[in-house]
Amino acid sequence: MKKEIVEDLIMNLKDAGCDEELITQCIKKYNNDDLKMLIKSLQCHRCCLLDKLHEEQKKIDCLDYLIYSLKKKMEEE
C-alpha cells in the first residue's frame, strides 16, 4: 500500500514540475513520516511556481498593451 502511495506521490510531483532532487527529498520526508517538512517543501515549491507565473503574466500584460497601442494607432491612420 505504501509503495502505491509513493508512486502516486512521485507522479504528482513530476506533474507539478518538481525536479529529481526535490522529488527525492520529498520521498525521503514521506518515508520518514516527516509530513510537516514535506508540506513545507511543497509550499515552497508552490511559491516558486507562483512567482514564475506572475513574471510571465507581466510579460503577457506588456504584450497586451503593445497590441492595444498598435491597434489604436492603426485606427487613427
TrEMBL record:
Q: Domain of life, per the record?
A: Bacteria
Which protein are we looking at?
Uncharacterized protein
- Organism of origin is Faecalibacillus faecis
